[in-house]
Amino acid sequence: MSVSVKKAALRKHLLEKRDATSAEFRDISSRKIHQNLRQVDSYNNSQNIACYFPIGSEVDTHNIMLDILENGKNMLLPKIVDSNLEFYVIPNLEKLEKGVFDIMEPKDSCKKTENIDCILVPTVGISKSGDRLGYGRGYYDKFLSSTNAMKISLTYSKQIIKSIPIDTHDIKIDLIITEDEIIKVS
What are phi and psi of 77, to 5 degrees? Predict the structure, then answer.
């Protein structure tokens, strides 16, 4: 079986598992993940923090985005442009509109930036060795291969699995934050 077929089956299983989680559990866990993130020096010491706008059953990043803005830091959100992920400085949440895949993304008036200190990455599944399973379109791996920013996965502990099938283009995550722990990937 090919890596992409294995990944697709694993992705389907993990998304079904995550989607079946109660909204109350996801809400409580998202708050705990935010609390754990606030204990991370590389996050706290960053001025330019790339985040993501949550969809479906993903870890809710609304409070994280507000926290970044309230602390006077630059909040960056992604937009897909010509099949690439680009990040834009968002001065407030009113500067967002529905974009590709119906995900909220920066309006055209926002300024593009290449300057990223820390990037919070959406995750479907991850191993403790930092191998991440995303949604399968490769936008994040392509972008992550071109940045030296600290790569932080926000995920529920039940999305951590023993191993993820990997391709040569897959990029490892530096830090995994769950509701239960902070895992530094070696």
Answer: -125, 150
